[in-house]
Amino acid sequence: MQFLHQHKRGDIMSHFISTEITHFLSALSTALDFTAEGLTRHHRRATYIAVQIGKHLGLSDRDMLILFCAASVHDIGAITFQDKQPLSQLEMVTPHLHCTEGYHLLKTVPAFASIAEVILHHHDFWQSDTADYALTPTSASASASAPASASLPDTSLPFLGHIIHLADRFEVALVGKPLLIQRNSILEHIDNYFHGALHPDIRSALYEAAKPENFWLDLSSIFLEEATLAALKQGNTVIQFDNEDLRGVARLFGELIDRKSRFTLRHSRLVSASAKRLAELAGWTPSQTMKMEIASLLHDLGKLSIPESILEKPGALTRDEYSIMKQHTYYTYHLLHKIPGFADIAEWAAYHHERVDGSGYPFRIPGAKLCQGSRIVAVADIFSALIEDRPYRPGMPKDRICSILRDSVHSGAIDADLVGLLLENYSDFYEIKNTLS
Ligand SMILES: [Fe+2]
Ligand SMILES: [Fe+2]
Ligand SMILES: [Fe+2]
What we know:
55% of the residues lie in helices and 2% in strands. It has 22 helices and four strands. A two-stranded antiparallel ribbon has the order 1-4. A two-stranded antiparallel sheet has the order 2-3. Mean pLDDT is 86; it is low at 5-16 and 130-154. It binds fe (ii) ion (3 copies). One fe (ii) ion binds next to helix 2. The site of one fe (ii) ion has 7 residues, from loops. InterPro entries: HD/PDEase_dom, HD_domain, HD_GYP_dom.
């Protein structure tokens, strides 16, 4: 079994980006909480509940981390607002579709193999006569000695899936405020829903976790995220992604963003490959170029907040629709900026609709403050949009693309030197389109 690389705090790491998985996944978890009703707190609250149950079960540090990661992205398989809508009903008709979809998506990131397995099971019911699950040994000292072992058995993964099932349905049952006064009715509601098909240890752990008032207060407070991280208690270990893992997760989220609309099926990958080539041509180092790949894969992360009716509209957007569209880079910035070590990535990714004449959106950054990384993503984004085949038109020919790029330079939208580099090396960029399936 492969799980995230684990290092003792204080190790000297050579990674150019050092980010704890908890912060990275918290940010991505928020991105998954956009629905037709706006920004919900479903993943974040379900993660808090799951972690509290795990804590009362006395799970090992390793299982707690897998539980946290899996809960943070448990509904990743429901991509569009339409896919997400049925998940907010307590009684679901076909819950397993998004479990399978999420499993296949997460399997593409090698470091997420265990998390994929948990997500596959996150709507399973427990049956006392057919299944029981062994937990990996609870050990307060596990994290203080060896790193997470690759040979630990996977028998606990479906069990962790059951915890998420309970946390997920519990969260859906939380309606209105204040939550504290609904305590008994919600617990009763959950017992009726599971009707005995819930592992007795998991049920007891929930009842224990739900005793103190702060459990209910945390769930509706602005301090939810820090309460979750405090309950997670990472011991003296810090979990970091290495460069390949980060790129793998960025690719995964690029794929999610692109799947929101059939118009943009390869957009994030195309922008990323084009931005990477531009950075190389501009003389960037390999490590900076890889950082650029990650930023450009995530440049439209905030599009997870945009309704498909706008993303899928074949014609021109109305003024109101365009205003809503403009929020996507605002969210890209704030989702990425809160991740430690991601300050550059957030700017390069989120400023791709800023203009060198200072009249872009959403921050209206003056050109003098627009760094080369942001300018690269802006050029790559426009180039990719022009060369991509769309369901309603084929990709544009070279002459047309060159003239639009030159016009965009003259109007003060994008960087003249970078467009010059792209035009001088046009065949490199044309090839990128052919290499992406
Ligand atoms: Fe789910
Ligand atoms: Fe859910
Ligand atoms: Fe964009």
